Amino acid sequence: MVKNMRCEGIPLTHNHKSNYIFIKCAVSLLLIGLAFRLLFFHPNGFPLFSSSYSFSSPSISEDDFVVSSTFMAPQSSKPNDSSVSVDFHNTQNQASQNVAAKCDIFSGEWIPNPLGPAYTNESCPEIEAHQNCMKNGRPDSGYLYWRWKPKDCELHRFDAKKFLDLMRDKSWAFIGDSISRNHVQSLLCILAQVELPVEVYHDKEYRSKRWNFPSHNFTLSVIWTPFLIHAAIFEDINGVSSSDIQLHLDKLDETWTDQCKSFDYTVFAGGKWFLKTAIYYENETIQGCHYCPGKNLTELGFEHAYRKALQLIFNFMTSPKQKGFVIFRTTTPDHFEGGEWFSGGTCNRTVPFKDGEVDLRNVDRVMRDIELEEFKKAEKVGLENGVVLKLLDTTHLSLLRPDAHPGPYRTFQPFAKDKNAKIQNDCLHWCLPGPIDYWNDLIMEMLVNG
Length: 450
Ligand SMILES: *[C@@H]1O[C@H](CO)[C@@H](O)[C@H](O)[C@H]1NC(C)=O
Ligand SMILES: *[C@@H]1O[C@H](CO)[C@@H](O)[C@H](O)[C@H]1NC(C)=O
Ligand SMILES: *[C@@H]1O[C@H](CO)[C@@H](O)[C@H](O)[C@H]1NC(C)=O
Ligand SMILES: *[C@@H]1O[C@H](CO)[C@@H](O)[C@H](O)[C@H]1NC(C)=O
Ligand SMILES: *[C@@H]1O[C@H](CO)[C@@H](O)[C@H](O)[C@H]1NC(C)=O
Ligand SMILES: *[C@@H]1O[C@H](CO)[C@@H](O)[C@H](O)[C@H]1NC(C)=O
Fold this sequence. Notes:
The chain is of the alpha/beta class and about 450 residues long. It has a single domain, classed as Rossmann fold (3-Layer(aba) Sandwich). The protein contains eleven helices and 13 strands. Bound molecules: 2-acetamido-2-deoxy-beta-D-glucopyranose (6 copies). One 2-acetamido-2-deoxy-beta-D-glucopyranose (NAG) binds next to loops.
């Protein structure tokens, strides 16, 4: 059972290092075994690492981040209150065509910020234990004192009051995996400085939640749907898999599509889970798989599934029946070094990378390329159908922040008993406060500051 789980977690790349990875897998499962179960999974039952993959491909070309100007952040009009939101959308829609691309807010660098973060572990009640690095005893705090500086402009700090005023009677949803939950918690922490959120719903596993900000009648949801398409996931409460994931490439996950109409704004993202072993279905018929040795199925590659899934999602989101404002976030790179998450990888850097100092890994580049291609197509369709579709291109700015993951401090005082304890590191999610807060500044910029 453990073996099954371990190997499930280690999908193959399209470049097929199968034997190597299989051996790595077998060895690592022997070494980690039960410890993995205890350390790696949230007590509530969801894998902490929504992604789990093993790639050692180092070499990347220099133009990983050449992003065409089509993806530059749009400038927006400034509605003077939320009642004009429909016009706001339309205006923005038209505006996005002739934006002279004054400033690409996604291209820039992290610069020192003596002011530090907008909130702390004391002021925010919503930080998930695994990302509460301060509380968990992370000794250094330098990672808190950087801000994102776009090359050609300033990024305004998120104005929580302005946001809540603008979003009166509105609803937002973040749809995706545990990185989306990480993101929503950051937003909650920022907004909590103006009004405390009231949790009004959570699912059994606390993976999907909804909050209300009563005095603004603003609703914020996070919906856990790691693939966004219909998937049968056979993971028990400890995240242990008893069978391969069955992924239906022609069906969306109704958990979110059913609710979608009720949201004025959606931010969706995905990706990492597609790297796992899965059997691919279409028309209820097995078409192939990704990393399923011994099954005598055609290896279709995660790229096949991810592209199909994105096409399905974008088709749905840009159909004329959809309302609202849709933001798609690009893939998030991790920063495991000296190993992977399951083999002692760590992330102990304490300062950001400078531009050009690090390359995107091959798998992230492949994923991002698919995202950009499908987004570009969908953006056109959206324009025709009056749906505002925006790209939140956080990949590059996230890549530059190896210093801001929980690392070993995903658990409380991990070295309290033993200074040399071997601790499973989290080099994928982000400490709160942390650089993920700037994702919200970017969203704010996309919405109102133009
Ligand atoms: C604010 O909105 C009102 C309508 O609600 C409009 O008449 C007015 O021109 C707007 N002001 C600005 C500065 O956009
Ligand atoms: C916040 O973090 C500090 C350490 O930086 C810790 O002493 C304190 O107990 C934490 N407070 C909460 C409420 O988590
Ligand atoms: C709150 O907002 C919803 C729309 O999201 C609206 O239907 C409802 O009437 C609002 N409630 C109040 C008290 O204004
Ligand atoms: C799916 O099945 C339907 C009828 O069962 C058929 O008409 C359709 O061509 C099939 N599509 C694919 C992609 O196999
Ligand atoms: C694998 O599948 C092919 C076609 O579906 C079949 O011809 C072949 O016999 C299978 N091989 C094994 C070892 O089952
Ligand atoms: C930091 O991580 C690297 C790579 O995993 C490791 O070789 C090094 O010993 C670590 N340094 C410290 C101070 O933990």
